[in-house]
Amino acid sequence: MKKLLVRIIKKIKKSFTKQNKIFQNRSQKISQLREQKKSDVERWECNEQLFEDWNERTKILGDYIHSHSRIIEFGAGNMFLKDYLKNYEIYTPSDVVKRFEETVVCDLNETLTINLLDYNTVVFSGVLEYVYDVDKVFAQFNTEIKQIVMSYCCSDIVKLTREKNGWLSDYTYAQLVQIFEKYNYKIEDYKEWRQQSIFNLIKKP
What tens digit of pLDDT does each residue of 166-197 get? Predict the structure, then answer.
């Protein structure tokens, strides 16, 4: 029994050490990326970084989307949203890497090259944490974008080390609200999922 207990303790220590090393390496890498203002493309080339439980968050976002919307989803990942939604006119998946033939490659830390005139709805599901300047992203939306549904781990709500999670920005709730107001969006709905803030934003008349 004692030998078994010793083996279990060693296994736990080994797992903890390995996880801690991963976090340390990620923190160092994120520090370098922040200095260069670059996206972590290498991380998102690995499909193992797409977790199935994120689909629960996507469902919440999807329930806010109006029927017959023309949607572009940034950070579309496995495109679960497309399968979940039933009534829409257009759905375009966008991501920093091309996972599927229909995925439009777009780096939100660069100037947008996508023509947004075809869309009236934008979705950000767990992607804006990896964007340095959210204000710059919103500034590129035309007046046709009537609805934005998004999630974000606000730095004053989620008390986690941002570098260890690979996050490149650290907006507070109030700072995000300032951006929404600047570009004339009101918060129609708000809820939290695992401390992540979920916003349904509607363009004011």
Answer: 899 999 999 999 999 999 999 999 999 999 99
Query: What does pTM read for this prediction?
Result: 0.81
Report the C-alpha gap between 151 and 11 in whole angstroms: 36
On whether the CB atoms of residues 90 and 118 are closer than 8 A, the answer is yes
Residue among 119, 1, 129 at smallest CA distance from 71:
119
Q: How far apart are CA 3 and CA 55, in angstroms?
A: 42
Dihedral, 57, 46, 35, 168 alpha carbons, nearest 10:
10
Structure-token pair, residue 61: 């976002």
**Which tokens sit at 82?**
């497309």
Query: Tokens 């990326």 map to which residue?
Result: 33
Cβ(78)–Cβ(50) below 8 Å: yes
Residue 48: pLDDT band with limits 50, 70, 90:
very low
Q: How far apart are the first and last CA of the chain?
A: 71
Measuring CA to CA, how many Å separate 73 from each of 7, 53, 157? 47, 18, 25
Distance of CA 25 to the CA centre of its chain: 21
Rounded to an integer, the average pLDDT of 149-166 is: 89
Give the CATH architecture of domain 41-203.
3-Layer(aba) Sandwich (3.40)
Provide Rg for the chain, Cα atoms: 19
d(CA 43, CA 63) in angstroms, rounded, equals 29
Mean per-residue pLDDT, 52-79: 92
Domain ranges for the chain, please list them.
41-203
